[in-house]
Design brief:
Blueprint: H1 3-10, E1 24-27, E2 30-33, H2 37-78, H3 90-115, H4 120-158, H5 167-212, H6 216-226, E3 243-261, E4 264-271, E5 276-283, E6 286-304, E7 307-312, E8 316-320, E9 324-329, E10 333-338, E11 345-348, H7 352-365, E12 373-375
Helix pairs in contact: 2-4, 2-5, 3-4
Length: 376
């Protein structure tokens, strides 16, 4: 067979192989891949490209293999008496020889039509007639070859080896092409499945980012796989205490403001030339108390494996995790309730849901019962 066919088989697998898969962690929200969201999106896109490229190459190899089987069948049929076909192939061989004879006759007729001279005015009419005949014979020949090639392919596939000449070489190359096509089809199917699962995960994690303000599913999977890493913090740590998170925060508490409202009655009498007036009468006002959140100072809110502590420039406080009752999460702050306190401490932070997530994670892994939380 031509060397170019062998080169096409050898160089056919150009689709990029799938990268080494990252770890996949089981969480309460399902399987999570340990890739950050942009990398996961890129992975899904790469998998789709691999699936497409592999499928296209597999199709090319299937077409090449089909052509090689046809060539093998033609080589076997052309041997005539020099090749003894199996009994099961004799009907196909007779059909192929008959179709081959028809195709050769049509090819000869086309050559004859092309060589017919046409000149002058009469030649113009003749050229039109010749063109019509050429088109008709070409169509008939295409139909014949369309019937012949599948028969030759069957002979090529079903004829046992070894046989003499190029037939065995063609068969080996056709088999190799089909083997590579099968591998590429399997790779394409694998890539399609990977792209589908990755896109489903992208949707779940995108929804998590939209709801929580950060990729909570990835953070959960990472912590489940590797645990939390300790960090330096402004808090003076106790023996065995590890700091996990430190964020800028402002401490605030509920405070009461009292003011008098109402009016007075009486007369005002000037005292000499002092500019001071003295009022005689009574005051009928009454006090009103108003509750408000008063900010006490800025600093850092630190979460450790033992406590939640605030280190401020003017005021600091801490509460043991075992003393936490619950935490309310607002759009801009956390309200932390603890034992022996009727009112909570409020901490204004940039990402309250992130801090709440970490509090719950630490509570779940330090032996404390996970506290109930509220979000408003």
């Amino acid at each position: 067979m031509p060397e170019t066919d062998q080169a096409q088989i050898t160089a056919s697998s150009n689709a990029e192989p799938l990268p080494q898969p990252p770890a996949v962690v089981t969480t309460d929200a399902g399987l999570v891949t340990l890739l950050e969201l942009p990398a996961l999106i890129a992975r899904a896109e790469a998998a789709l490209k691999t699936a497409h490229d592999s499928a296209e190459e597999a199709k090319s190899l299937r077409d090449l293999a089909d052509g090689l089987w046809v060539q093998r069948g033609r080589a076997l049929v052309s041997k005539g008496g020099g090749w003894e076909p199996p009994t099961s192939l004799k009907p196909l061989l007779d059909q192929a020889m008959a179709l081959t004879a028809i195709a050769e006759a049509e090819a000869s007729r086309l050559q004859s039509i092309q060589s017919e001279p046409n000149s002058g005015i009469s030649g113009l009419v003749g050229r039109v007639s010749t063109w019509n005949e050429h088109r008709q014979v070409s169509a008939e020949m295409s139909k014949t070859l369309g019937q012949l090639d599948p028969v030759l392919a069957q002979i090529g596939r079903q004829s046992p080896s070894p046989v003499t000449g190029d037939a065995d070489v063609l068969g080996s190359q056709a088999t190799a092409a089909e083997g590579q096509a099968k591998e590429l089809e399997a790779q394409s199917n694998e890539a399609v499945a990977l792209a589908s699962s990755s896109n489903d995960e992208v949707k779940r994690r995108t929804a998590s980012v939209r709801e929580m303000g950060f990729d909570a599913l990835y953070t959960t999977a990472y912590l489940n796989q590797y645990g939390a890493q300790s960090m330096e913090s402004p808090l003076l740590l106790k023996r065995g205490e590890l700091a996990y998170l430190s964020v800028p925060a402002t401490l605030a508490r509920q405070q009461t403001r009292r003011q008098w409202v109402g009016g007075s009655s009486g007369v005002s009498i000037p005292i000499g030339h002092t500019g001071i007036r003295y009022r005689l009468g009574s005051f009928r006002g009454h006090p009103i108390e108003q509750q408000y959140i008063g900010k006490l100072g800025s600093g850092s809110l630190v979460l450790t494996n033992q406590r939640l502590a605030f280190i401020g420039t003017t005021k600091s406080t801490s509460v043991a995790l075992s003393k936490l009752l619950h935490v309310e999460c607002y759009s801009d702050a956390l309200a932390v309730f603890q034992e022996s306190r009727e009112t909570p401490d409020f901490y204004f932070v940039r990402q309250p849901k992130l801090m709440l997530f970490w509090i719950n994670w630490v509570l779940g892994r330090t032996g404390f019962a996970q506290m109930p939380t509220a979000r408003t």
